[in-house]
Amino acid sequence: MTLGKTDADVLAYELARTDFDAVERKGLRAAWSADGTTVTVSELDGSDDFEYDGEDLVRATSDREVSHARNEPEV
What we know:
Layout: H1 7-16, E1 22-25, E2 28-32, E3 38-43, E4 49-53, H2 54-59, H3 63-69, E5 70-71
């Protein structure tokens, strides 16, 4: 079962379910940080990056929990 409301959420969630360090799909690249604590999803054209808390992604059981794992920038 795949979770996530956006393409970035889905890719981050799916990476957290694999043994891979990084995956690419649909113009996005998801990669674990060197210390394994965060997942960064980047648009291949360089326009946007999204960072997710790795532990929250691994424990996520709903679309909402996946979106809450995304670290939103402070405004």
